Structure prediction request, 356 residues.
Amino acid sequence: MATLTLEALGKSFGTTAAVAEVDLAVGDGELVCLLGPSGSGKSTVLRMIGGFERPTQGRVLIDGQDVTRLPPERRPTSMMFQSHALWSHMTVAGNIGFGLRLRGLPRAEIARQVAAALETVGLPGFGDRRTDQLSGGQAQRVALARSLVLEPKILLLDEPFASLDQHLRERLREEVRDLQKRLGITMVFVTHGQDEALALADRIVVMDRGRVQQADRPDRLYRAPATPFVAGFIGQMNLIAGEVAGGVFRHGAMVLPAPVPDGPALLAVRPEALEIAFGTGAGQLHRVTDFGSHAVVEIDLPDPHRADGVRIKAQLPEAPAARPGTPVTVTPRRHTLYRDDRVLWVSEAAPVAAHA
Prediction:
């Protein structure tokens, strides 16, 4: 369908940089999610791709052609916004076919394309319905059909499922993913929900404060986060600040081998990468939460700089019988050390030194 290239794309509002020099290449037929907290710049990037915001710097190229200065209606893109923005005075067919009428297509051809679009999104025969007769999920499908009927090279989606309940959101995102694969269309999808990004995307672009922190496959983002921000934003992660001296990382009673230069370091370890033993150790069991499929164990560790210590989480196959206050030993099986927002060292997968 199409490729998309962003070259040093930036946007400032007065003296505030909302987006700072974003470089990104989206492949033909690829689904890329822009993921980040509120204010990270992801929606601004999407609006610059669609032509709804003028970049302060950089370029937007589609299939190698510079479209940076083109208005939205002259770009081979279509935007599906967070709100359905369906016109209540029009039928479903009227909403979907509006853009085709602006293009001057014959009435019969508009009807044919609208019917095909409704079939594509699983709403055959809905053309004569009023928009106030639609459920939330049906309205989202109509909005999607309205975008698809224009046959864009690139479909842009700005948190389109944010207002829906969880079960409907999950079902619709699966349908969108199946539809995208079937049509082979290039998509850029904005969300602040990591579960949505992990379920939908071929690649995820994690943004923070207007900058790309990491752009990678979902499995790589989870298993090899490039920065402490990505480590803490994707999934559950225990982040513990300590010091490296003489090839050893220390935090309170926690001592781990660290063959790196001396200095401050940030330890990152996933809950499922922790082994714990009850009855001994400097840690103390705080709480156990049984989720049925697994249990999350919260543990308080001593911290030389905080009287209340630091709390970490471990994930176990089943809930232990230990009670709050029980001493705990913690042993990371795999961990990462960061310094200056970069990976300093990644341990081997084998167990390492334990919490004393």
Observations:
- Confidence is low (pLDDT under 50) at residues 349-356.
- The radius of gyration is 25 Å.
